[in-house]
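Readers of this paper often ask what the protein records in our data store actually look like. Such a record has a labelled line for the sequence and another for the backbone structure tokens. The tokens are whole numbers drawn from a learned vocabulary of local backbone shapes. We quote a single record here, exactly as it is kept in our systems:
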Amino acid sequence: MRLFALSLVFLSVIGCSKSPEPEVKSNLLIYCGITMIPPMQELAREFELAHPVNVTLTQGGSQDLYDSIKLSGEGDLYLPGSPQYRSDNLKDGILLDYKFVGYNRVAMMVQKGNPKNLTADLEAFVSPGVNTVLANPQTGSIGKASQKVLEMSGLYEKAYAHAVYLTTDSRRLVQAMKNKEADATLNWYAVGTWDKNQDFIDTLLLPESISQPRALEISLLKYSSNPELAKKFIEYAASPHGQDVFKRYGFLTQEEYDKLKQ
């Protein structure tokens, strides 16, 4: 009888015990310029393994992304392709703490094998017989950067008038080359280092006097629903490991940039 009673107590305890509840995960929404998506995807996967969080990356042209942030009033972090998007928009009070993660620079890209025998000379962008595609300065960081490079060479208006068409961002510039719609474009140097692009693109480095590296800065948004976790991601992306990841995708570290200046 006693054994039967103990059995009932044991079964009662088992029946009342609750199954472990699944871990509740936080969410981070990161607005990221297209060129930085590959390293950010890698860092996001690693961060998810180390923290109870789901990281969502929204990609696009840097200006389009900022406009989306303002319109939606949502999101945790913003990584544009140029520091100008931070400095120009600080007045809005949306961009808070930030960290440096690497440098990018504008380069000239030509068809694989360089069939037109072009050199790293921006005169190609106003030369008859050379088809060019450029990015719109109003939509993305590469467009604004291309505008400055061409302005420094006194070729901005002529080059944009000469272009076969204008497109929105670095990914569509690559597609123009892949479709052989252009003999030359201006795009971010990192894009030309990726394996998937090297079969149809050759990259020509422009002189640093007209193509200075642009700092990449990831900013906390005032709309963040989890600012402490968002700050941890910033620190992770800006860490030596994070910068090494960016380096593997063709972005310059601070040390490499300092060497260029010497």
Strands lie at 26-33, 53-60, 77-79, 95-104, 106-111, 132-135, 165-167, 184-188, 201-205, 214-221.
